[in-house]
């Protein structure tokens, strides 16, 4: 049986490099970092911010807020807006979700994590399935539940992950 040998030219390597960069630009890499100003609040766990050259939509990592069609969905959106609308933020991509959105840690200028603050206010759940080792969010949710802050002080709301399944 004959062995086939492939010869790569520099053009082949350049083509692979270009494709890799295009994929990274389209989907984002874990650890990718941005800075920008929050310009739009989409819902209780998703914002758009203006980076260097374009608007980027990101979802907060480790939290899940009520959907807009759910009870408290608008409350969560308002809480997120009060927290970060018009603010300069640092964003680090943790993962890219099934909808090709960047799922990120978002940090305010004063060093506070926006996801942590949403859980602290009782405006979002700690997303245990996606951030099982996040003891900070776990503690903040227990604290909010204990003092009945935000959605914990109101009639029960179906968690968004259960609501979406219905």
Description:
- The chain has a single domain (30-165), classed as OB fold (Dihydrolipoamide Acetyltransferase, E2P) (Beta Barrel), CATH 2.40.50.
- It has helices spanning 10-27, 73-84, 114-120, 135-146, 160-165; strands spanning 33-43, 46-50, 55-60, 63-64, 88-96, 102-108, 125-126.
- With 166 residues, it is an alpha+beta fold.
- Helix 3 (114-120) packs parallel to helix 4 (135-146).
- Strand 2 (46-50) and strand 3 (55-60) form a beta hairpin.
- The protein is globular, with a radius of gyration of 20 Å.
Helix content: 25-40%
* SS strand fraction: 25-35%
Tally the structural domains: 1
Mean pLDDT, nearest integer? 85
Strand order of the largest sheet: 1-2-3-6-5
Q: How are the elements arranged and paired?
A:
Elements: H1 10-27, E1 33-43, E2 46-50, E3 55-60, E4 63-64, H2 73-84, E5 88-96, E6 102-108, H3 114-120, E7 125-126, H4 135-146, H5 160-165
Parallel strand pairs: 3-6
Antiparallel strand pairs: 1-2, 1-5, 2-3, 4-7, 5-6
Helix pairs in contact: 3-4
Defining key terms:
single chain, 166 residues, alpha+beta, OB fold (Dihydrolipoamide Acetyltransferase, E2P), two-stranded antiparallel sheet, 33% helix, globular
Quick overview of this protein structure:
This protein has 166 residues and is α+β, with helices and mostly antiparallel strands.
């Amino acid at each position: 049986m004959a062995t086939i040998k492939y010869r790569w030219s520099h053009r082949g390597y350049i083509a692979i490099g270009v494709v890799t960069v295009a994929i990274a630009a389209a989907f984002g890499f874990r650890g990718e970092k941005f800075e920008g100003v929050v310009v739009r609040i989409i819902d209780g766990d998703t914002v758009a911010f203006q980076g260097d050259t374009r608007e980027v939509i990101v979802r907060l990592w480790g939290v899940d807020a009520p959907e807009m069609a759910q009870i408290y969905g608008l409350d969560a959106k308002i809480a997120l807006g009060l927290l970060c609308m018009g603010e300069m933020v640092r964003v680090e991509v943790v993962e890219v979700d099934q909808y090709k959105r960047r799922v990120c840690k978002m940090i305010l200028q004063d060093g506070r994590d926006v996801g942590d603050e949403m859980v602290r206010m009782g405006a979002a759940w700690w997303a245990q399935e996606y951030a099982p080792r996040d003891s900070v969010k776990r503690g903040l949710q227990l604290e909010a539940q204990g003092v009945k802050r935000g959605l914990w002080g109101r009639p029960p709301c179906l968690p968004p992950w259960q609501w979406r399944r219905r």
